[in-house]
Design a protein that fits this description.
CATH architecture: 2-Layer Sandwich
Pfam families: FolB (PF02152)
Shape: elongated
CATH topology: GTP Cyclohydrolase I, domain 2
CATH superfamily: GTP cyclohydrolase I, C-terminal domain/NADPH-dependent 7-cyano-7-deazaguanine reductase, N-terminal domain
Protein name: 7,8-dihydroneopterin aldolase
Number of helices: 4
Organism: Rudanella paleaurantiibacter
Number of domains: 1
Distance between the termini: 17 Å
Catalytic activity: 7,8-dihydroneopterin = 6-hydroxymethyl-7,8-dihydropterin + glycolaldehyde
Structural class: alpha+beta
Strand order of the largest sheet: 1-2-3-4
Enzyme class: lyase
Helix content: 25-40%
CATH class: Alpha Beta
Radius of gyration: 15 Å
Number of strands: 4
Oligomer: single chain
């Protein structure tokens, strides 16, 4: 068992609880960690025996293009789509960060992490 991680994926997207956020957009960051048995891929040197991180990026891009109100919903959607493409993964952890969230003061980013 091992992990495959993509860290610091950045997107400009139109998510947010407030309508204004969905109109003006914001910068987001996504981190993904997938736990999977890739021992066969390591032995055989075959991409088909593991999780392709290029596909993880494509999945994340598709989800980030669909407006959502909550960061939790974004993370859940990414996990659901990863599990659909790769049903044998043991665990998926997704963190979604929103830069400069509207909190009424200085905040570099708000971040949620979901495992599924």
């Amino acid at each position: 068992m091992g992990t495959i991680a993509l860290e610091g994926l950045e997107f400009f997207a139109y998510h947010g609880f407030y309508d204004e956020e969905q109109k003006i957009g914001n910068k987001y960051s996504v981190d993904i960690v997938v736990t999977v048995d890739f021992s066969e891929a390591a032995r055989q040197d075959r991409l088909s025996a593991t999780v392709n991180y290029e596909e993880l990026y494509r999945i994340t891009t598709r989800v980030m293009q669909r407006p959502a109100r909550l960061l939790e919903h974004i993370a859940h959607s990414i996990i659901t789509e990863i599990r659909h493409v790769y049903p044998t993964v043991a665990d998926v952890e997704v963190s979604v960060s929103k830069f400069n969230p509207p909190v009424g003061g200085v905040c570099h980013r708000a971040r949620i992490t979901l495992r599924g």
